[in-house]
Amino acid sequence: MKHIKWYLGILVGTLATGLFVNQAEAVPSFARQTGMACAACHTVFPELNSFGRTFKLNGYTLTGITQVEAKTSKDASGLQFNQIPPLSAMLQVAGTYTQSQTPTQQFSLPDQLSFFFAGEISPNLGSFIQITMDNTGEKFAMDNTDIRYANHAGNTTYGVTVNNSPTVQDLWNSTPAWGFPWTHGNDVNNPVIAGSFAQKVMGLGGYADWGNGIYTELSLYRETVALDAPSGVQNGTSTQQVRLASPAPYWRLAWNKTFSGGDYLMLGTYGLQSVVVDGTSYAGATDKYNDAALDMQYEHPLTNGNMLSVHASYTTEQQALDLSNSLDSAKPLSATMGSTRVDGTYHWGYHVAATLGYAGNTSDTSSYQDTAYTAQVSYLPWQNTKFTAQYVAYTQKGGDTSSSVSDNNTFLLQGWLMW
Fold first, then answer.
1. DSSP conformation class of 42
2. What is the DSSP string of 288-311?
3. Count of alpha carbons within 13 Å of 82, Cβ hemisphere only?
4. How far is the C-alpha of 66 from the C-alpha of 118, rounded, in Å?
């Protein structure tokens, strides 16, 4: 009975917050710029559909509103930008309940608060820039960011991207930055490519869609701030800080096709190679991480506007841990990690989505051995408002498969509001 009252309390609180907030990657500034509803680019945000992928590929520049313009002359360059500033905001509120011998409850308002500058900057140049309040609630910092230039040569769309997280620039929802469960979810260990670099690097790269279903990209990343050692090595009482010894190359290759019946399939591969050195001495031993992934995305249209979508990825990470071992001799000199992610979503139009997901790791280091299953239901009374109920169940955590692993099971209720 106590737990039932707690669930109802979260539900009422979340719904009440949503109802008293004005009514919009799904940011309303894109909708304002294009004059299209959110559903033109998304199934259930932030999952992109075919048009959304094309919009992103072309640099976020499609517009349907009046422009401020000035023609190019001998004395001045041209001018063209949207009359309406490409600004929007996001608020998430949440309540979580973690199952353990001493259950924990947490309510967050805000759970996340972000502002966006997202849309066309000038012809062929656009941005997705997210600024988010940190966990202390004291300051805002740069979050997911992708600034890109795009152009065309015949059937080829090519461009340049500047971004701050590997895969944040990707077009598909099978990669880490925009993959399920979209928000919160399990805390299964991730490969380096999926988290250690997020918002702590700057990448510069070139990409091309060759017009025949083939997409390619090559980018190089350097750190903007010190990184936490991906291996989690402890130096005294704090996590070891590291720097990249050289630019880290990221590559992407994907094949995609829409079939005559409307089914869509993408098969791809991506990877990142990084070498890190002690963040204090900038010299000595190094840790090397070689990440390579295979991924797929499948979409199957059904009757009455319903749809089934499936995402899957498998990442292998080879680690050479000379630096980690020099700081802690108990650490191995090398390790291998395999990471599998699979999710399938049934969409009832644009109002309801139900997802089942799996995340699991295999490793010769027990701390990376995690397995979790996620069940999630989202309801969108309006296209810019989403309420989510999520349950995460663990069968393995840090190599532990005993019955106590279920203490980590978590129930979440969340309101996600865009305007």
1. B
2. EEEEEEEEEEEEEE-GGG-EEEEE
3. 24
4. 17
Walk me through the domains of the chain, giving residue ranges and CATH numbers.
2-68+79-418 (2.40.160.10)
The pLDDT of residue 64 is 59
> If 0-12 CB within 10 Å is exposed, 13-18 middle and 19+ buried, where does residue 13 land?
middle
Backbone dihedral region for residue 54 (phi beyond 0: left; psi -120 to 50: alpha; all else: beta): alpha
Q: What is the pTM of this model?
A: 0.86
How many C-beta atoms lie closer than 10 Å to residue 119's C-beta? 28
User: pLDDT value at position 69?
Assistant: 62
**CA–CA dist 362, 370 (Å, integer):** 8
26-30, 42-46, 151-155: which is most confident = 151-155
Burial of 80 (0-12, 13-18, 19+ CB in 10 A): middle
Over the stretch 38-95, which tens digit does the pLDDT of each residue have?
Answer: 777 878 778 888 888 999 999 998 875 566 666 666 666 665 666 677 788 999 999 9
Which burial class, exposed, middle or buried, applies to 131 when counting CB atoms under 10 A from its CB (0-12, 13-18, 19+)? middle
Residue 163 neighbours by CB under 8 Å, 6+ apart: 145, 146, 147, 169, 202, 203, 205, 219
